[in-house]
Amino acid sequence: MANAINEGFDPERTAYIPPLPAPETLTMPGSGPARGHDHTRGAAHLASKRHTGLIVALCVLAAVLVIAVGGFFGARSYFADRVAPGVTFAGESLAGKSADEARAVVESKAADSRIAVSAQDGKTFTASLDDLGVSVDVDATVANLVAAKAGGSVADDLSRINPWSAQDVPLVVSTDKLALSNALTAQFIDESERAVASTVSYGPETKNFAVTPGKEGQSPVSKSVEDAVVQAAAHPGTTVNASVTYETVAMPITVQTAQKAADDANARLNVKLVVNNGAKKSFTVPAEEVAKWIGFDEDPDAGTIALKYDDKAAESYLNQVLPNELKQDMVKASVVTNKAGKVMITLQEGVDGVTVANTDDAVSQVVNALHSGSDVTATVKTDVTKFETDSRVVDYESPNGDPHVVVNLSEQKVYAYKGSTLVNTFLTSTGKLSTPTDNGTFFVYIKYEKKTMRGADYVTPNVPWSIFYNQGEALHGAPWNPDGIAKGEPRSHGCVNMNVADAKWMYDFLPVGAMVQVVGTTPTAAVRAPAPDPAADPAAAAPVA
Question: How far apart are the C-alpha atoms of 180 and 177, rounded to whole Å?
Answer without folding.
Answer: 5
